[in-house]
Design goal:
alpha/beta, Rossmann fold, 4 strands, about 15% strand, hydrolase, EC 3.1.3.48, LMW_PTPase, Ptyr_pPase, cytoplasm
Length: about 160
């Protein structure tokens, strides 16, 4: 489709998915493809709705010259009907999203792990919430590799 759509999802939408969203938006902007992509991130749960990303996620992005104004939101029925891709971080995300997607009539989103695109074959992007700066950096690097490969495939 001319307007490919894409969504990035994780559990709380304050650590991994805002990083993935910001990274993907930057890649899209660098390739001058903004007109082709709509990128967002959302949570499976409603725990953090309205909150800014974790300060460690923000500082990790800033270290790489990326800003984000994302506020956490919960995934909606419409997301499953409008986005072409819903990419998630781990198996529990995948289970929850497939379950939710199955309840949505005319769900068109392809739901898969972002890690399936990793050239280094790291399938799961672990939640860095209880970790340290280094763990956020690992998430950033994984997201960068995966988003690049994903964009190359669908660009």
């Amino acid at each position: 489709s001319e307007n490919s759509l894409e969504s990035l999802v994780s559990i709380g939408n304050i650590c991994r998915s805002p990083i993935a969203e910001a990274v993907f938006k930057k890649l899209v902007a660098d390739e001058k493809l903004e007109h082709k992509w709509r990128t967002d991130s959302a949570a499976v749960s409603d725990w953090n709705v309205g909150r800014s990303p974790d300060s460690r996620a923000l500082s990790c992005l800033r270290n790489h010259g990326i800003e984000t104004a994302h506020k956490a939101r919960q995934i909606t029925k419409e997301d499953f009907q409008t986005f072409d891709h819903i990419l998630c971080m781990d198996e529990s995300n995948l289970r929850d999203l497939n379950r939710k997607g199955n309840q949505v009539k005319d769900c068109k989103a392809k739901i898969e792990l972002l890690g399936t695109y990793d050239p280094q074959k790291q399938l799961i992007i672990e939640d860095p919430y209880y970790g340290n700066e280094k763990d956020f950096e690992t998430v950033y690097e994984q997201c960068l590799r995966c988003c690049k490969a994903f964009l190359e495939k669908y660009h």
